[in-house]
Amino acid sequence: MCPFCYIGKRHYEEALSSFPYKDFIETEWQSFQLDPDIPALSGASTSTKEYMITRKGISEEQIDQMLKHVERMGAEAGLDFNLKDSLIANTFDAHRVIQLAKSKGLGDTMEERLFAAYFTEGKDVSDHEVLKSIGLEAGLSTEEVLQALTDDQYAYKVNQDKQESQQLGIKGVPFFVLNNHYGISGAQPKEAILQTLDKAFGEWRKDHPAFRMEVSQGPSCNPDGSCD
Questions:
Q1: How many domains would you assign to the chain?
Q2: Whether the model pTM is above 0.70
Q3: CA–CA distance from 9 to each of 36, 59, 65, 79, 226 (Å)?
Q4: What is the span of the domain harbouring residue 166?
């Protein structure tokens, strides 16, 4: 439900596409649930405006300004936000399905599909029928999604991720952790992410002396002055 996470995802993807060693980077999504006190019932959603008025005490005029501002930020990142139709809901079950998708190598696919469903299509991501449909689109079967929604192992993995974020002192999202040493907080621009990627990867290479780059060879000159 965090619009800046979707924007941050795009900025990260742009940075990664420019990173010369992107093939050596493994990206793993971690669960971080926003407002877990929302009733955890399938389909028990409320409009963004109603939520912000009743839970946050924000006026309707302020809400409209905020949503327009975030929509402009999304557009700058190439995203089509439709925030006035988004539905606030308990996302625990959606995170359970993400955990299943991760185990199938479909974590990023599921994240992208859920983001689009929530921010562009105005779907209720707490609704089990919606999660089944999104799961099918992402490459999961209906049986697998039902398993994620009923098997405690996926709930355990969600809670495990939440505990890990607390141990790392992460209080908001998006938050990127690189090589367990560098952190990027918020939807920072591509350039900032690329700079941190470079630092983290350089450190990783020092710790992995056996690492060898695959190099394609073209015309060059050697230190002795010979060229070929």
A1: 1
A2: yes
A3: 22, 30, 24, 11, 45
A4: 3-198
